[in-house]
Specification:
Helices cover 38% and strands 15% of the residues. Bound molecules: beta-D-fucopyranose (FCB). The site of beta-D-fucopyranose has 12 residues, from loops.
């Protein structure tokens, strides 16, 4: 983008009085290592579960892999320049575990760490606060071969790895997120199998979820000592779960899905206990024998911030006897013990992922975390939408994506007005990228990526977001 101060492509901002965010609000954009870096076999990096999964026939759309992705590994400086032109105050990226610690054990790989040191240095030189996520789903394959997240030892391995990163970057990185979306790692990776490593076993998914949180807690304890000045947190993906009607069956279906999707993680991390109703719902799946004395105290080690990723709402209904629901986005069920709950579509506008657009759900979600769980500062660490983009005369006018951001930023502002200590917002995503099982067929970026030529085109939403950042706000409704 040559001139970030260029007025936005759409006129909305100028027709309405401004809606201002609190001073210092952290405006950011997010990515993840496997989705953008490429250079899968360079610099000493070994395979992660996503390399293995994407190279297995039938696992990703059209067999797409992250081998090259956005080639960000080789285009780091150009991409940081684009961020600076957008005026980003912060950039949320993830560190690739097998790049930094090949094979998931032993000493750090200096060449891998060097990449992130250069990234952090360039961000800081451009006045952009680095926001580092330690785990965005790329478990070293060797650790999966040893049992993966269902195995307890993986939690300890994660804490060791976190210290290697802390040693290299602790002096320059203030914001540290342990895990991105442990629900997806556990329930899509080991439950439905639509994500790496592609296993389908409800008990394994529950164990994975526990060990992810244990790894989180151990890493927080390690980082607290290694980087005392750091702001430590975790990012969870949350959904409001609404019953399709107020019938007792629908209400109970919503309770069950809320327990698995939200409270499975929020309660142990922020309250130090699994919810009783969740344990009862899962009784046929697991006896929770994998939970050892002291685990929940570790998992609930105090944090400094909480990250919330928000995309949509779940609307659910009671099972219909004899019917196995098969919603469009799951293979095996990712809801162990509640497989027969029906997911209802309401006929409201959806994104290219078929996810319903529901900005009020963001207000509900943020208020819930604050009002029911914690006074800690909250950050929206991901929010965004996939739409089909078209390049016309070298421009991408992504009005739908822009409207999605606009609506969700208004929701963020509403949450702040309602008393939520929301301190920042990260758009997902900076760049179009490898959208996991969907490969390159879904575009979430504010910046368009031509994967053949590896060129970038800031879309209308990027120009608009630059203006939002410059004004520290939006037009009022
Ligand atoms: C989230 C993931 C992120 C991206 C978005 C669309 O679940 O954290 O990597 O895939 O969804």
């Amino acid at each position: 983008m040559s001139n970030p101060a260029t007025p936005p492509a759409v006129g909305v901002l100028d027709e309405r009085p401004p809606l201002t965010f609190p001073p210092g609000f952290l405006w950011g954009a997010a990515t993840a290592a496997y989705q953008i870096e490429g250079a899968a076999n360079e610099g000493g990096r070994t395979a992660s579960i996503w390399d293995t999964f994407s190279h297995t026939e039938g696992r990703t759309v059209a067999g797409h892999t992250g081998d090259v992705a956005c080639d960000h590994y080789h285009r780091l400086s150009d991409d940081v320049r684009l961020m600076a032109e957008l005026g980003l105050k912060s950039y949320r990226f993830s560190v690739s575990w097998p790049r930094v610690q090949p094979g998931g054990s032993g000493p750090a790989n200096a060449e891998g760490l060097d990449f992130y040191q250069r990234l952090v240095d360039e961000l800081l030189a451009n006045g952009i606060e680095p926001w580092l996520t330690l785990y965005h789903w790329d478990l070293p394959q060797e650790l999966e071969d040893a049992g993966g997240w269902p195995a307890r030892d993986t939690a300890a391995r994660f804490a060791d790895y976190s210290l290697l990163v802390a040693d290299a970057l602790g002096d320059r990185v203030k914001y540290w997120t342990t895990l991105n979306e442990p629900w997806c790692s556990a329930f899509l990776g080991y439950g439905s199998g639509v994500h790496a490593p592609g296993r389908s076993d409800g008990a394994d998914a529950v164990r994975a979820g526990h060990h992810l949180m244990l790894g989180h807690g151990l890493a927080v304890q390690a980082l607290r000592t290694a980087v005392p000045q750091a702001q430590l947190g975790v990012t969870v993906n949350l959904y409001p779960v609404t019953p399709a009607s107020d019938s007792p069956g629908d209400v109970d279906a919503a309770r069950r899905i809320d327990a698995l999707a939200n409270r499975f993680f929020l309660d142990p991390i922020l309250r130090g206990a699994y919810p009783d109703d969740l344990v009862a719902d899962l009784a046929k799946v697991t006896d929770f024998g994998h939970v050892h004395d002291g685990d929940l105290a570790t998992i609930s080690t105090p944090l400094d911030v909480v990250g919330v990723n928000y995309y949509s709402r779940h609307v659910v209904a009671a099972p219909v006897s004899g019917e196995q629901p098969e919603p469009y986005w799951r293979a095996q069920s990712c809801w162990p013990g509640s497989e027969d709950v029906r997911f209802v579509t309401r006929g409201v506008p959806v994104t290219d992922m078929d996810w319903e657009i529901d900005a009020p759900g963001l207000v509900e979600t943020l208020r819930r975390v604050h009002e029911e769980y914690t006074d800690l500062p909250l950050y929206v660490t991901e929010n965004g939408s996939a739409f089909v983009d078209e390049v016309v005369d070298g421009r991408v006018d992504d009005v739908d994506r822009l409207a999605y951001f606009d609506a969700h930023l208004r929701a963020s502002h509403e949450a702040i007005s309602a008393g939520v200590p929301l301190r920042g917002y990260f758009a997902w995503s900076l760049l179009d990228n490898f959208e996991w099982a969907w490969g390159y067929t879904k575009r979430f970026g504010m910046i368009y990526v031509d994967y053949d030529k590896q060129t970038r085109i800031p879309k209308s939403s990027a120009r608009w977001y630059a203006e939002v950042i410059r004004r520290n706000g939006l037009a009022a409704q």
